[in-house]
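Q: I'm a student working through a structural biology exercise. My instructor gave each of us a protein and asked us to get a predicted structure, then write a short paragraph describing it. Mine is Fibronectin type-III domain-containing protein. I'm not confident about reading structure output yet, so if you can add a plain explanation after the tokens, that would really help. Here is the sequence I was given:
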Amino acid sequence: LISNLEPKGSLAAGTTKTYINLTTDEPAYCRYSKEAGQSYDSMRSRFSYDKDKLFHKAFISGLEDNKAYRFYVRCRDIAGNKNDEDTIMQFGIGGASVPSGNGGPTGDNTPPYRYNESPEGELPVETRQATLSLETDESASCRYDTYSGVGYESMSHNFNQTGGTLHSTLVTGFSEGQEYEYFVKCIDSENNKNSNDLVISFEVVSPEDNTPPKISNAYPFNEEFSAGTEETIIGLS
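A: Happy to help. First, here is the predicted structure for Fibronectin type-III domain-containing protein. I'll explain a few features afterward.
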């Protein structure tokens, strides 16, 4: 299943290059052509893909104002099964007339695919704030919560920058030696929303301890022992 084809409609006048994106419902390899009806094997232009082979993109350049563009897409899954019908991706630049939407065997019923989240791992000592960020494979609005399993509508925080494919927001109030987790869900223009959380997790490291131990309360201290004393107890803290 090929879905979430982007871009669609009209791009701004003056646009000369863009990425074309899509998602598949299983790991796959995808290709495209400017000619309809070509078999997958005959297509020479390929999409790159993420580590799961679910999100696919290709860079297109040389675009001109007031022109419409159409690409025909087919994919092959890991087992070797290939699409025998074209999925059509179409968009225009500036005032070009473009049929509404992109077409294929099915419509868009897939929630946004989220990836490239950050930060992750360890953040430096004295970090007090950080920017949460992620990308989606289509235009979407994203929210987050500090609790897992919260529905999109019930999440308590919106990303400050969202609505496109890049999403970011500033979070503050960190302390050294603490771990932080933020749970993210997104929704697209077709009201398809994520049911599972994307987790952004990291830790603010504690400062290194370069100070040697401080010795105090040593005993005995300035005490005189009677002649013949053969043993005593010494201590410190």
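A: Here are two points you could use in your paragraph. The two ends are 69 Å apart (CA to CA). Residues 187 and 193 are 4 Å apart (CA to CA). It's a good idea to check both against the output above yourself.
Q: Great, thank you!
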